[in-house]
């Protein structure tokens, strides 16, 4: 059965996040990519896996390390003002829907 709509996630590409669970718990890093259909995010230097790369004209090949996606529920946005992890809400300002920090009430970029 197909869903009627994809949920609106509160984490976006470029956000600084803190990992809440797993091997990399407590790590603060930047979101590289969001996969909304799967509910996963790719975070820089988190959940590193080894990949065997075949040689090409551009790359010599060998075993490379790259980040793998983690569940979006395992990350929390870091507020740029306070530097602490915060929950995110949405509200209408000037006719536009914007994200805001629930901890400080400040609008997030």
Automatic annotation (TrEMBL):
<keyword id="KW-0689">Ribosomal protein</keyword>
<comment type="similarity">
    <text>Belongs to the universal ribosomal protein uL24 family.</text>
</comment>
<dbReference type="InterPro" id="IPR003256">
    <property type="entry name" value="Ribosomal_uL24"/>
</dbReference>
<feature type="domain" description="KOW">
    <location>
        <begin position="10"/>
        <end position="37"/>
    </location>
</feature>
<dbReference type="GO" id="GO:0006412">
    <property type="term" value="P:translation"/>
</dbReference>
<comment type="function">
    <text>One of two assembly initiator proteins, it binds directly to the 5'-end of the 23S rRNA, where it nucleates assembly of the 50S subunit.</text>
</comment>
<protein>
    <recommendedName>
        <fullName>Large ribosomal subunit protein uL24</fullName>
    </recommendedName>
</protein>
<keyword id="KW-0687">Ribonucleoprotein</keyword>
<dbReference type="GO" id="GO:0003735">
    <property type="term" value="F:structural constituent of ribosome"/>
</dbReference>
<dbReference type="GO" id="GO:0019843">
    <property type="term" value="F:rRNA binding"/>
</dbReference>
<comment type="subunit">
    <text>Part of the 50S ribosomal subunit.</text>
</comment>
<keyword id="KW-0694">RNA-binding</keyword>
<dbReference type="Pfam" id="PF17136">
    <property type="entry name" value="ribosomal_L24"/>
</dbReference>
<dbReference type="InterPro" id="IPR005824">
    <property type="entry name" value="KOW"/>
</dbReference>
<dbReference type="InterPro" id="IPR041988">
    <property type="entry name" value="Ribosomal_uL24_KOW"/>
</dbReference>
<keyword id="KW-0699">rRNA-binding</keyword>
<dbReference type="Pfam" id="PF00467">
    <property type="entry name" value="KOW"/>
</dbReference>
<dbReference type="InterPro" id="IPR057264">
    <property type="entry name" value="Ribosomal_uL24_C"/>
</dbReference>
<dbReference type="InterPro" id="IPR014722">
    <property type="entry name" value="Rib_uL2_dom2"/>
</dbReference>
<dbReference type="GO" id="GO:0005840">
    <property type="term" value="C:ribosome"/>
</dbReference>
<dbReference type="GO" id="GO:1990904">
    <property type="term" value="C:ribonucleoprotein complex"/>
</dbReference>
<dbReference type="InterPro" id="IPR008991">
    <property type="entry name" value="Translation_prot_SH3-like_sf"/>
</dbReference>
<comment type="function">
    <text>One of the proteins that surrounds the polypeptide exit tunnel on the outside of the subunit.</text>
</comment>
């Amino acid at each position: 059965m197909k869903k009627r709509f994809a949920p609106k996630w509160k984490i976006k590409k470029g956000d600084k996040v803190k990992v809440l669970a797993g091997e990399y718990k407590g790590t603060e890093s930047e979101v590289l990519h969001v996969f909304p259909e799967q509910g996963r995010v790719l975070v820089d230097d988190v959940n590193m896996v080894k990949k065997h790369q075949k040689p090409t004209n551009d790359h010599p090949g060998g075993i490379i390390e790259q980040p793998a996606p983690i569940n979006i529920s395992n990350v929390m946005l870091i507020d740029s003002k306070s530097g602490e992890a915060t929950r995110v809400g949405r509200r209408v300002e000037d006719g536009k829907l914007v994200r805001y920090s629930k901890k400080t009430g400040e609008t997030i970029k």
